[in-house]
Specification:
This protein is of the alpha+beta class. About 50% of the residues lie in helices and about 15% in strands. The protein has 15 helices and ten strands. The strands form three sheets. Strands 8-7-6-9-10 form a five-stranded mixed β-sheet, sandwiched between helices. A three-stranded antiparallel β-sheet has the order 4-3-5, with no helix packed on it. Strands 1-2 form a two-stranded antiparallel ribbon. Helix 3 crosses helix 4. The longest helix is centred in the N-terminal third of the chain and has 24 residues. The radius of gyration is 26 Å and the shape is globular. The termini are far apart.
Length: about 450
């Protein structure tokens, strides 16, 4: 039994640590995923959307702290109950994701009247943030995510059921558990092409060892938990207040956007269309392998359904559309421009931070004088744009873009991106806006 518990603790502890740190690296991106789940057309909990970021950070910190608690045997009654509930919750969430019917409808009230609207299915649970896409080329499918959670539950249950046998580690326990957990964590780091989690774990365990030498009993367990919480919160906040330490997104520095727009494989689909015969009243479903009654006026369209025979693989970037005031898409011109292009990304003007706008104005004014192209990009209306430009004396023109694209491009509102011939040369958070000379160092 001891060997089984050690195996389970190593697998569960290391998995929770890597999962929490990968999401903590991009807590804002994780909060966007939670917003998708909370939407009225998904789980129907829009009242939770304002709390998405706080809940995302809480979930990240909880995963990391629980991972360490399992490895060192700290406060196991509290830790195992939390661990079990969190695993069951994630299992339920991935099951919901996997079984969501994109053809389903839900009832909503609009202007006092009940209407039927389309359900929104979240196709990616965000279990490992963007790390799976950025390192392995794709995320887990919903059913793969559910399977992963069920396998994890198999290893969580022995820890929960025999939690009374697990105590705060002796030095012998440390020698049996910690080296192997670091080996497994190193394997995860290799999979995700990011070695920081291993460094983080070493720092966390070094603090734990020091605490155990200085403090005894229950106090040592609580102080260890506090230590892991502090360093996890510090890491999470650093990535939120600047940019992700490891950028897995297709707009990361060094990525060529035109190349990222290639390589998609369309899904293989079977389309069924339902028509009704106005003369006989017959309702019949036709498939794409047969012949639709296009030219027969007695048949009228009723509905359609799509059966996916083979899932496709979308390109990392599917849309790079920036529209000027005249409705012209200048995205391709921006990507082909050999002269440096600064994009000031203001996802939504009403939510934008204004503290860094003086620094952005200084940078963009200097870039203009040096012959660079400068554009603002936003999903807000042009009426809001004009007020925003006037209030902050911004000289550059704004282009409109889809909000989801802007969210993906940079985790800051506003943020600055430097492009040259379609390649991302630099990205800066609102808190880190560079001078023109600093930005020039990013060019090649």
């Amino acid at each position: 039994m001891r060997a089984l518990l050690i195996l389970c603790r190593i697998l569960v502890g290391a998995t929770f640590i890597i999962s929490g740190l990968v999401k903590a690296n991009d807590a804002l991106g994780f909060s966007y995923k939670l917003e998708e789940y909370f939407a009225e057309s998904a789980l129907g909990m829009p009242w939770l959307e304002p709390a998405s970021l706080a809940l995302a950070i809480l979930a990240c910190v909880a995963e990391v702290v629980l991972g360490f608690a399992v490895l060192v045997g700290g406060r196991m009654k509290l830790a195992t109950w939390t661990l079990l509930l969190l695993t069951l919750f994630f299992g339920w969430l991935t099951a919901y994701t996997a079984t969501c019917d994109p053809q389903a409808k839900y009832e909503a009230v609009v202007n006092g009247e009940k209407v039927m609207k389309d359900v929104t299915c979240v196709t990616d649970c965000g279990c490992f943030g963007d790390a799976m896409k950025g390192s392995l080329g794709r995320s887990l499918t919903p059913w793969e995510s559910f399977t992963k959670d069920m396998v994890l539950l198999v290893f969580v249950l022995p820890i929960f059921l025999f939690r009374k046998r697990i105590h705060f580690n002796t030095w012998g326990d440390d020698m049996a558990i910690l080296p192997l957990s670091l080996v497994l964590l190193a394997f995860y780091c290799w999979v995700f092409a990011w070695w920081f989690p291993l460094v983080f774990a070493l720092i966390g365990l070094a603090g734990y060892m020091g605490i155990k030498r200085l403090v005894q009993g229950v106090r040592a367990e609580w102080i260890t938990a506090a230590w892991i919480t502090v360093i996890t919160v510090a890491f999470t906040w650093y990535c939120y207040a600047h940019l992700p330490l490891r950028d897995y997104r297709p707009y990361a520095v060094g990525k060529n956007i035109p190349e990222e727009m290639k390589g998609g494989v369309p899904p293989v689909e079977h389309i069924f269309v339902t028509y009704k015969n106005t003369r006989t009243g017959e309702t019949k479903e036709f498939d794409s392998k047969g012949t639709y009654p296009w030219d027969d006026s007695t048949w009228v369209y009723v509905d359609r359904r799509i059966e996916t025979l083979k899932a496709g693989k979308p390109a990392p970037i599917q849309d790079f559309s920036f529209t000027d005031r005249d409705g012209v898409n200048v995205g391709e011109d921006i990507l082909n421009e050999p002269t440096p292009v600064l994009l000031v990304v203001v996802k939504t003007i009403d939510q934008a931070s204004t503290d860094c706008l003086p620094a952005i104005k200084a940078l963009t004014d200097a870039a203009y004088k040096d012959g660079w192209y400068v554009y603002g990009t936003t999903s807000s209306s042009y009426s809001d744009v004009e007020t925003f430009r006037h209030d902050h004396e911004l000289a550059f023109d704004f282009l409109t873009c889809d909000e989801i694209t802007l969210k993906t491009m940079i985790r800051s509102n506003p943020g600055v991106i430097l492009l040259q011939q379609g390649t991302v040369r630099g990205q800066w958070h609102c808190n880190d806006v560079p001078t023109l000379e600093e930005a020039k160092k990013k060019l090649k």
